[in-house]
Each structure stands twice: as C-alpha cells, then as structure tokens.
C-alpha cells in the first residue's frame, strides 16, 4: 500500500512524473474549508444511517473542526505526497483523530461527488462577492448619472456624431447590462442551489442508505441531484458561471474603452482622479487611464477562461473523467480577476470629473440635429422620405458654407424647401432635441429621471 487514497490494488507507488502531473493541491487547496464543511455534513448523514456511533460522529466532528481551524491559520497545508485537496485532508484528519476513526468517513462518498458539490458551494460564495462588486459599480454609475442630470453630450453610432443625448442616459446605458449580469448571477445561483451532487458517489449513488437531501440542506442547497451520473459529470454550472463573469468583463470593458477615449486630448470629456490614474516613467506630463486599460485587457482573459473551459468539456463521455480537474483554474482566475478589478474600476468611475461644457459644445456639432429637422418636417405633414432628403440637403449646404445647421439663414432654409419655415429653428437646439425624445426609454430629461428611479428600484431588489 502506498498511503494514497487508492493504494490497495497497486504494488508500486506513482512515478514522480505522474505525481507531478496529477497533483492539484497548488490550486485546489483553497477549496479545503468547503471540503471540510462537506465532510461534516457527510459524517452526520453516516451517523443518521447508523454507520457511525454517537461517539464516532462526535469525534469526527470535533476532529474536522480542529482541522478547519488549523487550515484557516495555515498551521497545516498540503504536502508533496498529496494528490489533491481531498487526499490531503484525509491524511490530516487521520493525524487528527487516528486512522481507525478517520478511516470511516470516506464510506459512501467519492471525490467525484465531493468535488462537484464543494465547487458549487465555493462558486456560490464568490457569486455573492462578485455581485456585491458589480452592485457597487452600478451604484457609482447611477450616482454619476444623478449628479449630471441635465448635462448633454454627443450620442454616437459608428463612433460618429448621431444625435444629442443626456450624459445621464448614456451612463445608465452602461448600468443596465450590469444589472442584467446581477440577475444572471441570481438565476444561476437558484439553479445551482437546487442540485447538490453529494450522495451521487462515484457515479451510481450510494448503497449505504445515506440521504442526499439531508446533506444538501446541511450545505445550504435547496435540493439534491436527481441523477447521480449527471451530478458527478455535469459542469454546465461552471461554464455558466464562467460566462456570466466573462460577460461582466465585457460589459466593464465597453465602458473602459469609452473612458480611455474620453480622457484623450481630442475628446477631453473626462478627467481621471489622481488616485485612479498612473504616470509615465519618462514623460512627466502623462496621466494614463491604466485601470480602464487593464479592464479592457482582463476582459480578454476572462473570455479565454470561458472558451478554454468549454473546450475541455465538449467531448467528455459520462461520467467523471479526470479532464474535469481542469475546470477549476479558469474560474478561480475569473473570480480573482474580477474581485481585484471591480473595486478599482468602481473607484475610477466614482471619481471621474466630466467636462460638461465641452460635451455640451460638441453635442450639436457634426449635424447631429439633422434627424430633428426631418422629424419636424414629418410633424408638418411632409412624408419622411422627402423630409429625409430635405434635411440631407441642409447638411450638404452647411458643409459648403462651413456652418452647423443653426447657422443657415431663413432664406437659405427656404431655398432648400418651402416647407422649411423659420419655425424649424425650434428644434435646432440640443435642449429641444433631447426634450422631444420623450417616449419611454428616450433621452428626454423627464424620462431619464424616471429611468433613474426605475434603476434605483431594480438595484434595491438585489
Ligand atoms: N481532483 C479531482 C478533480 O478536481 C477530483 C478527484 C477525482 N479523481 C478521481 N480519480 N476520480 O476533479
């Protein structure tokens, strides 16, 4: 016997090369507290099934508590001889309570149902942490939106001036996707909570009369797996988590890209707070948007974690395969990445100073009121096809004259079309333009205030 969890049928121990390949303690040791919690639940269920005496279960629970404390303090760690966190903890439990008692705990469970369960508990914990950080970012965006009600900016499509919008409207357009990410995390959590794999054993379930529902409740789940093969083999919960975290990365990266542009000399829309920007080692004048750039870069990384994981899963036969050991590092990385990125990013957003004068100045430029001219003509009874043509001619004339739309004289308007009476000037202001877009979801100030309330209400739910 080699001392490993599975030594009985082997005459020789693992070669050093196999051990080096097989070992996962350098990344799965962080699951130790979760494995210990699972072991406590398992000890209780063995006791209820009559497989442990009252003394046995008391001794095991005390030993597991003592071990939990030692793991937390760092007094015990995995060593070279341990294949994975489960093996390490069994070795340490035997040290704690003796081989006779410690050797009873493994009955009726497998590392396959263990890992599937405790990985879910780990991810559920971190889903809450990530959601808290996302919520903080949504709050920062909402606060900035509220602080700038009334400020206007050039709205863009294709990165070209399109129509003026309220800055608050634009900022909240970044908040809503994050709110949907929060909802995704919540939906994910409910699905995962209903499906505790403990009791699935290696793949076929347990012959020892253990009740998976009891373990599930003990570990904070609402139910246990309906199918033990599925319970041990499925990793869609990991992939879905990796997707949601990748989506958060992408949503943050879209805003990051705008902050980077906005902070350029050419845009000059925002100033970054000193505490949330960096300098150059050679160019004394530099103030760089490194947080936004790191956000953009790390989005690539969390996307990679998702795609790598999906590739690992795509052709696996049922049930457990060792390939599944590769499911952890990608999502550990996504969790660690977001947990360090989001607080910095939120700080950057919360401390942005907007150059609202500059934004207001640019809002009507680039003929961004041309749609307003066309829609004004429609309200005068002109078919939109004609109105679009006429407004387009106005733009052409402006380009020739080097003026914006409000720079045309009454005579110049009239020469383009008799429909263009001087009253058209009523829509040739940014204020008039945004105020006119007053349907639900539009950029009119009243609608944007209403939207702010709606956003705060939705967020209060999370
Ligand atoms: N360390 C493995 C994992 O992360 C769990 C162990 C299952 N090993 C096995 N030979 N069945 O998936």
CATH topology of the largest domain: Fumarase C, Chain A, domain 2
CATH class of the largest domain: Mainly Alpha
Note poorly predicted spans: none
Q: How do the SSEs run, as a string of H and E?
A: HHHHHHHEEHHHHEHHEHHHHHH
* Average pLDDT reading: 96
Radius of gyration (CA) equals 31 Å
The total strand number stands at: 4
Major sheet: size, sense and barrel closure? 2 strands, antiparallel
Widest sheet: strand order?
1-2
Count of structural domains: 3
Indicate the proportion of strand residues.
under 5%
What ions, cofactors and ligands are bound? arginine
Helix content: 55-70%
Going by CATH, what is the homologous superfamily of the largest domain? Fumarase/aspartase (Central domain)
Structural class: mainly alpha
Morphology: elongated
Give the termini distance in whole angstroms.
53 Å
Second-tier CATH architecture of the largest domain:
Up-down Bundle
Number of helices: 19
Protein name: Argininosuccinate lyase
InterPro entries: Arg_succ_lyase_C, Argininosuccinate_lyase, Fumarase/histidase_N, Fumarate_lyase_CS, Fumarate_lyase_fam, Fumarate_lyase_N, L-Aspartase-like
Organism: Nocardioides iriomotensis
Keywords: Amino-acid biosynthesis, Arginine biosynthesis, Cytoplasm, Lyase
Characterise the protein shown here:
By secondary structure, the chain is mainly alpha-helical. The chain folds into 3 domains: 16-107, Orthogonal Bundle (Fumarase C, Chain B, domain 1); 112-361, Fumarase C, Chain A, domain 2 (Up-down Bundle), CATH 1.20.200; 365-460, Orthogonal Bundle (Ribonucleotide Reductase Protein R1, domain 1), CATH 1.10.40.30. It is built from 19 helices and 4 strands. The strands form 2 sheets. It has a two-stranded antiparallel ribbon with strand order 1-2. It has a two-stranded antiparallel sheet with strand order 3-4. 40% of the residues are buried. The protein binds arginine. Arginine is lined by residues 24, 84, 111-112, 115, 320, 322, 324-325. This is Argininosuccinate lyase. It catalyses: 2-(N(omega)-L-arginino)succinate = fumarate + L-arginine.
